[in-house]
Amino acid sequence: MTEFSVIGKDVPKVDAPVKATGEAKYAGDLVMPRMLFGKLLHSPLPHARILNIDYSRALRLPGVKAVVTGQDAQGRRFGLRPDTRDKFALETEKVRCIGDEIAAVAATDEDIAEEALSLIKVDYEELPALFDPLESMKDGAPQIHDHVKNNVSAETHMRFGDFEQGFQEADLIRENSFETQFIMHGFLEPHAAIGLWDSTGKATLWASKQSPYMAYRPVSAGLAIPLSKLRVVQPFVGGGFGGKNEAFALDFACLLLSQKAGRPVKITCNMEEVFVSGRRRHAMALTTKIGMKKDGTITAVQFHMIADGGAYTSTGPLAISIPGFLMTIPLRVPNVRYDAYRIFTNKPAAGALVGHCIPQSRFAIDSLIEDMALELGMDPLDVRLKNAVKPGETTASGFKVTTFGFAESLRAAAGGIGWREKWGKGRQKDGKRLGIGMGVNPGVVGNKMGGHDGSAAIVKLNEDGTATLVGGFTDSGQGAETVMAMMVAEDLGLTMEEVNVTKVDSEYTPMDPGTFGSRTTFCSGRAVRAATADARRQLFDFAAEKLEANPADLDLRDRKVFVKGSPDRSMPLQDVVRGLQYGRGNPIIARGTASPGVGLMNFKTGEGNMSAAYSGGAQIAEVEIDTETGQARVFNVAVAHDCGRALHPGMVDGQMQGPAVSGLAQALFEDAIVGKDQCEVITTNFADYKMPTTLDIFDEIHTFHIETNDAKGPFGAKDAGESAQIPSLPAVANAVRDALGIRLTSLPITPEKILKALDEQRRPSGT
After folding, report:
1. Do 717 and 705 touch, CB atoms closer than 8 A?
2. What's the pLDDT score for residue 464?
3. For a Cys-Cys bond, which of 113, 209, 266, 301 suits 194, CB 3.0-4.6 Å?
4. CATH topology agreement for domains 283-448+602-762 and 454-594
């Protein structure tokens, strides 16, 4: 293996000092001269027509400088794509969920702005509300959006192979239904933005976005201003997890308020607003049917999904399609029938959250696989190994798998936690029942989703021989800036301290789709390496003249350009840079681009090669259950994942440990509870919303990097982080199944559900 100077080392994160000292400025920290404070008025009703908005009293309140309503946005809708634009910047005609934004005020301080909201009078005509997706789908149900029949936000139907023939070939066919809940992203930094609409007509937005360019175009469309008149600047981001990709009402409101007031306006949501009106993971009703042969070979999978999408589309079409795309990986499934429906209800909208609906589907599939393995008298590990997709295969849907360390992940996780010695043993300790369970995950990197998929980067060499990296990627806490700086340092022979990484500013940074879908290291990283290759070419062309050598014979390391095999024939990097800049007036500004590397798949049928590379992994959880209280605690976890190559092993560990904790949270704790009568959000803060604390998580967690060194990835890297959350739900649910001998099909698995299941288990048959 090649010896690297920086790659593969646990170097300090580039943003660690400023975050540790509090110097890092998040959107809510920013202050500008003459800045006003904005607040949003939210709907108290789940479904109502807006008859009139009177804000005259609010406008007369001393300190209030501007009030805006949907009329100021001229009734323009926005969304991620032209076909999903169903949200107004501020609602003008009717509200569709509690929390819908209706108006916004700007005042000299937050207290005045808050008081002004109470002075705005809104007249409503209350409409019938829908809280159950099944009721919402029925003929004759009230329409939440007038243009949508039966409130079907999106639907998709995929067929791979011959699923009817697949079930005919099966020796065992089983079917079960499962339910998952709404959960929140749990980021600690709430949504915040500052808008400045200056006298030249230029609108600048400073906002907490993990994908600034994903919000850039919707804001432009929603405000009907050309992109050349819009600037989006990204400060530090305090976590995103999929929840800070889109444009939101506050982005439009702060700019509209600024336009009216002639001053910058900052809106910082409180956590209650995030819980009430922010995005969330889709709640789902899932039915899966699987066929198996006696030896454990999977012959067919039939899958049916109904997703509660809430009041707006958000990422809806993609959300319900992704699980279908990934039905044939990491387990080989030759025949698939997949039907999914996303339904509008009068609840807050659901959108992207880590894994983007794959965790819910794997919960159902892996739970049923575990039950079927038990019925066949087989070890679930052996069933999964038997069906594991291998490198070089093409799946039934058309995925062309190159490197793929899934089977190795299974073996590593199982060996690291002692699976063979523990599964199915009916273990007990200190009066508690112990169980162990497994889940698996697919992973895609560099997937081409249509629209803007390509990445770009610029590397500028400074006159002292240091480098500045300008890219459109975003670090939302996962360490992207550090990894990109490592690539630049490695390729240009620099130390980490000699590489500066800028943040996104649409005025000068190249476009990049942003941080989602496990794409940043793989796609943006390849663009960075293309830029460093361009920089090396420029440096070597000049140095070759001075060293009387062929550019192809030169190398760069430890701040020196030298002839390979003759390190004494060298030039300091700084001299090369200055020779170009001073002597020839030639700045070294290198650029690089990268595309996903695959063609566009058929999104309607799900057929085609979705990604330039695929990864797979496994997670195994051990649980102890107190049968007196129903309390379940996961005390030991093993996570293994094919990361391609661990560029920063410590951060890869963190990206496997964090998702394992958040997956545990959805399995046992978290539930964004919505009231059944008026559909109001009950859990509106972290005190009520049960996120696990350090006392609730594992005593031990074992991580295993399966390195397959993918030829297409930068330095062989693929992905880490997002995929590791996918197997948590089935791993925990299967561990509970192993401990109790009871299959629980509804998440979260609470003490109440466990006690009820145990009570039913103890009852004599027929009572």
Report:
1. no
2. 95
3. 266
4. yes
Q: For residue 767, what pLDDT band results from cuts at 50, 70 and 90? A: low
The CA-CA-CA angle for residues 313, 319, 322, to 5°, reads 155
Average pLDDT for residues 110-139, to the nearest whole number? 97
CATH (residue range 454-594): 3.30.365.10
- The angle formed by the CA atoms of residues 624, 628 and 629, to the nearest 5 degrees, is 75
Q: Which amino acid, 182?
A: F
Q: With 0-12 CB in 10 A as exposed, 13-18 as middle and 19+ as buried, what is 170?
A: buried
* In contact, 227 and 213? CB cutoff 8 Å: no
* Model confidence pLDDT, tens digit, residues 662-699: 999 999 999 999 887 767 899 999 999 989 998 899 99
Distance separating alpha carbons of residues 286 and 304, to the nearest angstrom: 6
Beta bridge partners of 158: 338
Strands (E) across 216-280 are located at 230-233, 265-268
Q: Tell me the CATH number for domain 31-127+188-239+244-277.
A: 3.90.1170.50
Contact 99, 277 (CB under 8 A): yes
Q: Sheet harboring 428-429: ordered strands across? A: 428-429, 432-445, 613-625, 632-642, 700-706
Domain residue ranges in the chain: 31-127+188-239+244-277, 283-448+602-762, 454-594
- Do β-strands 48-54 and 121-126 pair in parallel, antiparallel, or remain unpaired? antiparallel
Say which DSSP state 707 is in.
-
Residue of 380, 501, 439 whose CA lies nearest to 663: 439
Q: How far is CA 758 from CA 368, 370, 474, 628, 741, in A?
A: 20, 20, 47, 10, 10
What is the torsional sign of CA 515, 517, 522, 524? negative
How is domain 283-448+602-762 classified at the CATH fold level? Answer: Aldehyde Oxidoreductase; domain 4 (3.30.365)
Q: Does pTM top 0.90 for this prediction? A: yes
| Backbone torsions φ then ψ of 26, nearest 5 degrees | -90, 170
Neighbours of 557 (CB within 10 A): 15
